[in-house]
Structure formats: structure tokens, C-alpha cells
Design goal:
Layout (H helix, E strand, L loop, with lengths): L20 E7 L2 E2 L3 E3 L11 H5 L2 E3 L2 E5 L5 E4 L1 H14 L7 H14 L12 E10 L12 E10 L10 E5 L16 H5 L2 H9 L4 E3 L16 E5 L5 E4 L8 H12 L5 E4 L11 E6 L3 E10 L2 E4 L9 H14 L10 E3 L2
Parallel strand pairs: 9-10, 9-15, 12-13
Antiparallel strand pairs: 1-2, 1-3, 1-8, 4-7, 5-6, 5-7, 6-17, 7-8, 11-12, 11-14, 14-15, 15-16
Helix pairs in contact: 2-3, 6-7
Bound molecules: pyridoxal-5'-phosphate.
């Protein structure tokens, strides 16, 4: 299969239309078979549930080429089950988890010429999503839905080298207790836009959100979970019912314990103890881990000993091991790598 003529290593993170996408519709209480289509547009009623009451959920994952030339995706079964959780919380019909994985596979196969080569650092980003499509004017769940998966090639996250981030402890809240912070709903991202634009205007890379009820505990950023490393090399991640259960974070905690033999802890993390950690990183599909160099908490600067030039040593080991597993250089735990072709 001939690859598209794309300058893979200079790609950014933007939408590039690819050849095919998968579409399935839900009507009269059932999903249809679904099919691939060339049509990249969505035509829905002006009164569609998604447009009026934001009934939409999504996932984000990547297909890439391993060292031995296979096209694979990383743990798509976890994206499928997280999307099912998101659907249940927004009163949407669940797209069956096995069909979700099949749809992802079909979309990647149909766009295989857009999967960047091994070593480029680029990948084919996959966006499964679902929305209420029929007219809804009273506030209630839609009766009809559309599930889609599209693909778009994206460039390496760390172009020109790793640069530790500077974060601001936000005065805005991302998620309410007993709200929707633990699911991947479009509404969580709409309400974070003002906070991130404000943080960028003030010169910060990201927001650190605290728990909304006490503003004492670390939650997450707008698009990644936190990992901390203690001075005695224990890996700590915040436990909260209002953060998104990151697939990357769960994988890194496993890698820390089972591959690197480190002690791991998922527990409440207080903002007051953050100054005592040796390393801090953000984990998510986009970067695997982005190191954090500095956090500013209302004038108080927390500077991690790992500094503003490179990842800390444990963060680097975690990054190298998980990317090694993903790229086929290190043997993966059973079921983590779905080989497409
Ligand atoms: C709010 C939020 N937290 C965490 C993550 C990281 O999750 P994952 O590792 O599954 O990409 C994401 C990105 O999907 C996110 O949007």
C-alpha cells in the first residue's frame, strides 16, 4: 500500500480530511449495521439534540506503525468501555463495545495510507464520537443518534524536543462532585475553553484544576491526568471520582509497578503537598507524558527539581517503557496492542 505524500514529521495537530470514515445510526431502539463512507459531512436537523442540549460524547486514540511494520492501536477496548460509560451518563444508547473496536479497525484499514511510518513520531489520530441527531425542543434525551469514527494524521507531540510545561492553579472548576468530570462529554470541554484561553493569555501552558468542593485536592488538567514522583521514587496519581480515567495513566501505573518495579499509589493528592514531589507529568494519548516544570498557585511558585529543560529521570523511564511497548520494541502485556494489519 502506497503512503500519502505527507511531510509526517512536520505535521501539527489539526484536522486533515482522510478518505473514509465509519457511520452508524440509531433509530427505533436499534443501531444499524453501519458502513464506511467517503462523505465527510454531517447533515442533521436544525433542532438536533446535540445542537440544543449538547448531547455528545467522544473518544481519542491513535493508530501507528510499529518497529516491525504492523499498523496497531493501543488498548481500543478501554476506549470502547469508557465511551459506553459516557453514553450511560448522558442517557444515550451504548454503541456495543465489540462493534466500536470493529469500527475503529475498519476506519484504520480504509485509511492505512495515512498511517505515518515507524520512526516519524507521527500517528493517525482516531476520533470516535456520538451525538443526538433528531429534533429535541423540550429538555430530554434524543431518540435518534449517530456514531462516527474519523481519522486524521497528526505530527509528533514533542517537535524540536521536550519542553517542560508551566501550569496555573485555576480559579475555574472543571467538574462538579457527582457531575460529568469522569466521562468524555463535549460539554466538559466547552466549559473549559474560557479557562484555557485565559491561562494562555496569562502565559501558562495549562490549568491545574482542584476539586470543586474544597479546592484543596489536585484533579487534572483540561486534557490529561497527573502523575507525581516522590523524592524516594514512588509514583503517585490523584484519585477522584470527577476526573477522566485516562487510559495512558492506567497503563503507566501498570508499567511503573510491573516493568520498573516502582511503588505506585492512587490516592487523594493535596495541593499543599505538591511542592514536596520530585517530578510531575501530564499523561494522555496526545503526548504519553508531558513533563511539568513549574506550577504557579496564586503567586506561590512550585518548581520541580527536574527543572525546565528535560523530563525527570523516573518520568523519562516511564515514557521510554510505555512508548517502547506501544512501538513493539518491548513486549506488551497481553491484549494491549491490537494489530490491524
Ligand atoms: C480531561 C482528560 N483527562 C485525561 C485525558 C487522558 O486520557 P487518555 O490517556 O485516555 O488519552 C484526556 C484525553 O483523552 C482528557 O480529555
Amino acid at each position: 500500500m502506497e503512503k500519502k505524500n505527507i511531510d509526517w514529521s512536520n505535521l501539527g495537530f489539526g484536522y486533515i480530511q482522510t478518505d473514509m470514515r465509519f457511520v452508524s445510526n440509531y433509530k427505533d431502539g436499534a443501531w444499524d449495521e453501519g458502513a464506511l463512507t467517503e462523505d465527510a459531512t454531517v447533515v442533521i436537523s436544525e433542532c438536533a439534540g446535540v445542537l440544543q442540549y449538547a448531547q455528545t460524547i467522544f473518544e481519542g486514540m491513535k493508530a501507528y506503525t510499529t518497529e516491525d511494520g504492523h499498523i496497531v492501536v493501543f488498548r481500543p477496548d478501554l476506549n470502547a468501555s469508557r465511551m459506553a460509560d459516557s453514553a450511560r451518563r448522558l442517557e444515550m444508547p451504548v454503541y456495543p463495545e465489540d462493534k466500536f473496536v470493529e469500527a475503529v479497525v475498519k476506519t484504520v484499514e480504509a485509511n492505512a495510507s495515512y498511517v505515518p511510518p515507524y520512526g516519524s513520531g507521527a500517528s493517525l489520530y482516531l476520533r470516535p464520537y456520538m451525538f443526538g441527531s433528531n429534533p429535541v425542543i423540550g429538555v430530554k434525551p434524543a431518540d435518534e443518534y449517530q456514531f462516527r469514527v474519523f481519522a486524521t494524521p497528526v505530527g509528533p507531540y514533542f517537535k524540536g524536543g521536550v519542553k517542560p510545561l508551566t501550569l496555573k492553579v485555576s480559579d475555574f472548576d472543571r467538574a462538579a462532585p457527582c457531575g460529568t468530570g469522569h466521562i468524555k462529554a463535549g460539554l466538559n470541554y466547552a466549559m473549559s475553553l474560557h479557562a484555557i484561553v485565559t491561562a494562555h493569555e496569562e502565559g501558562y501552558d495549562e490549568n491545574m484544576y482542584l476539586d470543586a468542593s474544597t479546592r484543596t485536592k489536585v484533579e487534572e488538567t483540561g486534557g490529561a491526568n497527573f502523575l507525581f514522583v516522590t523524592k524516594d521514587n514512588k509514583v503517585v496519581t490523584p484519585k477522584s471520582d470527577s476526573i477522566l480515567p485516562s487510559i495512558t495513566r492506567r497503563s503507566l501505573m501498570y508499567v511503573a509497578k510491573e516493568y520498573l518495579g516502582l511503588e505506585v499509589e492512587e490516592r487523594e493528592v493535596y495541593i499543599d503537598e505538591v511542592k514536596d514531589f520530585a517530578e510531575c507529568g501530564l499523561c494522555g494519548t496526545a503526548a504519553v507524558i508531558s513533563p511539568v516544570g513549574k506550577i504557579v498557585n496564586h503567586g506561590e511558585e512550585i518548581c520541580f527539581p527536574s527543572g525546565m529543560e528535560k523530563m525527570g529521570p523516573i518520568t523519562q523511564k516511564l515514557y521510554d517503557t510505555l512508548t517502547g511497548i506501544q512501538m513493539g520494541r518491548i513486549e506488551a502485556p497481553e491484549g494491549w496492542i491490537k494489530v490491524i494489519c
